[in-house]
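Narrative of activities, Objective 1.

The group set out to show that a structural description can be obtained from nothing but a protein's sequence at a throughput compatible with the screening campaign. Below is one input-output pair from the validation batch, recorded exactly as produced.
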Amino acid sequence: MRIEWTEPAVHDMVALRDYIASDSKFHAQRFIRRIFEHVEKLAAYPELGRRVPEAGRNDIRELVYQGYRIIYRVSPAKVDILTVLHGSRDLNNPANRPWEA
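Output recorded for this entry:
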């Protein structure tokens, strides 16, 4: 299965890398690489993650990596990575729902 990163998800990763890099470029690169490695598992197992409770949909799922939620949408041909955000973000707020964008 093909994995595609949406533009907002790419921006999330850049912002996360830059934030961590302000303390350590080495740790920033390692953290981002590990998120990509975690996501690559979805190519073989697209339903690996749990359903996102706030979405209430079977096609919106998430992986959790060190406190960050990697939210994605599963379709028959691909997995779309929608966002990577800190687990403390409130997804009950309609403005923070990446699956509705």
